[in-house]
Input
Amino acid sequence: MISVIGAGPAGSFYSSKVKDADVCLFEEHTQIGRPVACTGILTDSINRVTRFPRDLIINYVKQFKIIAPNNKATYIDLKKKNYVIDRAGFDQHLFERAVDNGAQVHLGERFTGYKKTRSGYQLQTNKKKYETDMIVGADGPKSAVAQAAGLYGKRQFIKGWQARCRFPALEPGVTQIHLNLGEFSWIVPENEHIARVGVIGADTARLQQDYKKLLGNATILEDQSGIIPLYNPKQTLQKDKISLIGDAATQVKATTYGGIIYGLLAGTYLSENPATYQERFNNKLGRDLWISLKMREWMNTMNEEQSNTLIDIFQKKHNIDILANHDRDFPSKFIVQLLLKETSLWKLGFDMFKNKLFSRKQ
Output
């Protein structure tokens, strides 16, 4: 038997893909997809990973509007639209696919630990014990499975403050990205009147100030805040027959802090061949996650003047074309093109490098 801990997208998707094995899917909550703590934007790359019902699409993102501290903005038209999805409904859809694949479901059961036996593991929940051959931790950023197995490592977290809001003056199909508000901030419209508004960062005091500024006169309808793991390139994904996927494995890109696609791909690789899972994931996706991490480290050093300069660079047509035609989930496919075509990025990068050196000396 395979015991999957966590019925979010990664855990449910993995459970829907497993063949020739009995799967038990454990979820500590009694309702799938709740509470929501995610912006719920999917790039077109989702269609290369899996299909999902179109009625889960609430809106389409046709453009990104990137706004500098001096309020100068540039629009990036997306060659392929992004999807604003019903995130709870998306989770429920993947869960139903797991059930259709034969997964036995245990809602309201929280993983509390395990011990090794001669034949496998004895898994303990808050309700009872189970004999199992394999454990898959898909139980979120502070994964209890990772902690119990000694796979937790020195992981770091950032705070994501988000709310579903009644928001004035929305541009249909346009997602706003504000530079220098938190580490990353967004206004994602569901329709002409409702938006998902959020900001991410590590500094609580600054985060509170930036979040208030971003919300403006918006009326909060639902809080959707949560914590997000920072990708750890040294994260161990497996120990014996225990594996981690999704947020539990820190598989989140640090540029926009999204992880749905990576979690689904991790579930696919693990279901196809557990023996090669870690090597395959790192070889196929590790480079993009590492590039995203380094991009985020550099972006976090930018001052207001440098953020304004970045907008000036992105307003050039050849740079807009590169950004519009490539999937941000996989930065390795466009970062080299940008650096080759735009020499001013090298100067900006050098200035940010000096920022990093100065911050280390303080």
User: Anything to note?
Assistant: The chain has three domains: 2-33+87-155+235-294, 41-86+157-228, 301-361. Residues 301-361 form one domain. Residues 277-299 form the longest helix (23 residues). Residues 26 and 106 are 5 Å apart (CA to CA).
